[in-house]
Amino acid sequence: VHILPESFKKSAGLEVSFLVMLGILIFFSLEKFLRWRHCHIADPTKHYHPVVAMNLVGDNVHNFIDGVLIGASFLVSVPIGLASTLAIILHEIPQEIGDFGMLIRFGLTKKKALIFNFISSFSAIFGALASLIIGSYIKDYALIILPITAGGFIYLAGSDLIPELHHETKISASLGQLMAIILGVGAMAALLLLE
């Protein structure tokens, strides 16, 4: 809601559309190739499975890219940066919980899984710093990154969030989900008004 209008204001519609599609493709590829999990060992809890290293590398890359997106959003404006940060945090919480469980399942102790997960979160800070530095040298950097960010958010909503919401079948919980979505869109619209 907050990223696309800014992009369309400052760039050609077709260019922005292609960059949004590129964002969807990038996030699909990241999830497909960096988060791919397949185990050929009957009892992976007896040692550190190679998927532990693959998960940690993938999580670092993913967090770095999240940081790049956050940094680019702040280059446009503080409200857009805050909204992007909130959206990424809301996506990251369940993902990191899932990563934590997977690391334990494949051989790490709870303490080590927590430490490695915490350390990998620092790559987001490096990504944000890289984005802010690059953005200070390249004039249209944010105009390229923001539509890619929007595509990434569209992909995450379509591939992760919406399917998860469909698991809930109770009417009261479904109405609560709908209200949360409406409140989220309202909050994003309010941020646009603050600009």
From TrEMBL:
The keyword Membrane applies. GO terms for biological process: intracellular zinc ion homeostasis. The keyword Transmembrane helix applies. The chain crosses the membrane at residues 12-30, 68-93, 114-135, 141-162, 174-194. Keywords: Membrane, Transmembrane, Transmembrane helix. GO terms for cellular component: membrane. It is found in: Membrane. InterPro entries: ZIP. GO terms for molecular function: zinc ion transmembrane transporter activity. It is a multi-pass membrane protein. Its main location: membrane. This is ZIP family metal transporter. It comes from Candidatus Portnoybacteria bacterium RBG_13_41_18.
